[in-house]
Amino acid sequence: MAMTLKLKNNSCLLYLILLISCLLGCSSNNIEQSKSELQIKFQEMGKAIVDNNLEEFSSHYSNSPLHLPPGAQLNNSREKIEHFLIGKLGLYIIDGEPSITFSDDASMAYVYGEYHIEADPLKKVEFVQGRFITIWKVIDGDWKCVVDIWNSPDAQFEHL
Q1: Weakly modelled stretches of the chain, pLDDT under 70
Q2: In three state form, how does the secondary structure of 76-140 look?
Q3: Which residue of 5, 18, 55, 143 is 20 to 30 Å from 86, comparing CA positions?
Q4: Where along the chain do its domains lie?
Q5: Is there a contact between 61 and 67 (Cβ–Cβ < 8 Å)?
Q6: 2-157 — its CATH code?
Q7: Distances (CA, A) of 88 to 14, 28, 30
Q8: Is-above-0.85 flag for pTM?
Q9: Are 51 and 63 spatial neighbours (Cβ–Cβ below 8 Å)?
Q10: Which of 43, 35, 59, 45 has the alpha carbon at shortest distance from 109?
Q11: Cα separation of 68 and 74, whole Å?
Q12: How far is Cα 158 from Cα 84, in angstroms, rounded to an integer?
């Protein structure tokens, strides 16, 4: 009887160890998958910029994002972002490879990089270079941009 009990306890212990190992491994896989999914989303946004596809671009934002372009008003809805970018989206170019930093559980992340805007005299747009930071969150299983802040190296702020 004592031997049977010992076997059951060892079996339970082995089962528990396997279960914990699987959960840790599965969690790690989910984190890596989540990271990969955000990288794909960011690439999709870049393609939407190149294709000048405003609807596709704005679909990557949450329903109530914080969108802060330099020198412009806050845009806090997809519709306001679309209105702001009408006729200008294809002028934005991301320079180099942006940096992506994830939270420990990969449910939030920020993307930091540099951009420039191509000049277009017909649209009254001048060449501008700047930096951006976007904050992303997994919402209902999908990555959405919740904050999008850009700035430009305007000389009037150098003294600050």
Answers
A1: 1-29, 154-160
A2: CCHHHHHHHHCCCHHHEEEEEEEEEEECCCCCEEEEEEEEEECCEHHHCECCEEEEEEEEEEEEC
A3: 143
A4: 2-157
A5: yes
A6: 3.10.450.50
A7: 61, 40, 37
A8: no
A9: no
A10: 35
A11: 5
A12: 27
